[in-house]
Amino acid sequence: MDNVRVIEVKRSIFESNDQDAEKLRGELKDSKTFLLNLMSSPGSGKTTTLTRTIELLKDKYRIGVMEADIDSDVDAKTIAATGVKAIQLHTGGMCHLDADMTRQGVRELGVEDVDFAILENVGNLVCPAEFDTGSTKNAMILSVPEGHDKPLKYPLMFSICDVVLINKIDVMPYFDFDLEKCKENILFRNPNAKIIPICAKTGEGMQEWADWLSENIEEAIK
Amino acid sequence: MHELGVVFRIIDDLTELGKENELEKIHSVTLELGEVSGVVPSLLTDAWKWAADRTELMKGAELIIETLPAVTFCEDCKSEYETVAYGKICPKCGSNHTYLLKGNEFMIKEIAAT
Q1: Pick from A49, A28, A212: which is nearest to A136 by CA?
Q2: Buried b (16+ CB within 10 A) or exposed e, B73-86
Q3: Among A131-135, A181-185, B85-89, which is the least confidently predicted range?
Q4: What was the pLDDT predicted at A16?
Q5: Lower CB density within 10 Å: C or N end of chain B?
Q6: How many whole angstroms separate alpha carbon A206 and alpha carbon A185?
């Protein structure tokens, strides 16, 4: 072990991801595309919510969807059936998407003709929160059966989201779910979070969600 | 949970560094890991052993992890306290107007190489 030298590196491991994310945000700004990073646990109703959202906005904006999953293309097929541009991204076993993978997805999708791009992240409340994808805004869906204490258990996810959708509110009478307590728990982690209770199945609250999106899309495309 | 993904990132960074500095062999890698960075040291070490052995440059290299304590600051009573013990609520005044001062670092500090 002669001539071993110690090299000071002092490099943050997330730094290159943060740089990639900023770069992507810049590119999206130039192409006048609003990119929403949509996160949730598996089974919270992401794909159904997305389908309803597309129905509400597709006459107004050009939409493109990137479906991220560890495997399969069932979700991309569901989305493609709504008539918008959709691609499937396979993470190859990874539990989240990082900025570089998102950037590749954006290239594959092609955003020159897209006003509103949606990244449906891997169903997971832990890892996606730690990697900035380069999206314009972050949203997450929390569904009633998951319980109102989730914001306390997954603090980082709730603290990085601009908007939290509380889905499946139609089944609230059957679960021990306290909506006011849930809102309090979210705001405790993130006082700036916008909270919208919805039911993707019945359509309740979906207009408020669509209005929030329209406002942000208008901002991006002007 | 994503320790392996993080290890791939470290390997990419060090491969680049190896080229820049014309290194033949990296013998050890020292990381600085904050207590609340969300990365589990034992999983990181296991993932490192597996992934580093697949490269020429880093085969057999030791991963040294230095843990950095997490400290939270209270905006109301201006005090600092241990994050891991008390979380978001200030133990001195009970306020939740607090923010993390340090403890989420995840850095490659240095490497020993030839």
Answers
A1: A28
A2: bbeeeeeebebeee
A3: B85-89
A4: 78
A5: C
A6: 22
Pairing type for strands B106-113 and B26-34 reads antiparallel
In this prediction, residue A52 has a pLDDT band, given cuts at 50, 70 and 90, of very high
**Residue A128 amino acid letter:** P
* Domains along chain A with CATH numbers: 15-221 (3.40.50.300)
The yes-or-no verdict on residue A131 having pLDDT over 90 is: no
Residue A203 clears pLDDT 90, i.e. is over it = yes
Q: What local confidence, expressed as pLDDT, does residue B1 receive?
A: 59
Q: Which residue of A has its CA nearest to B99?
A: A189
The pLDDT score that the predictor gives to residue A1 is 52
CA of A14 vs chain B CAs: smallest distance (Å): 7
End-to-end, the C-alpha distance of chain A in Å comes to 61
The arithmetic mean of pLDDT across residues A74-90, rounded, is 87
Ordered domains of chain B (ranges, CATH) = 3-69+103-113 (3.30.2320.50)
Contact A96 B2 (CB under 8 A): yes
Contact A9 B108 (CB under 8 A): yes
- Confidence (pLDDT) at A98: 87
d(CA A186, CA A189): 5
Q: How far apart are CA B26 and CA A160, in angstroms?
A: 36
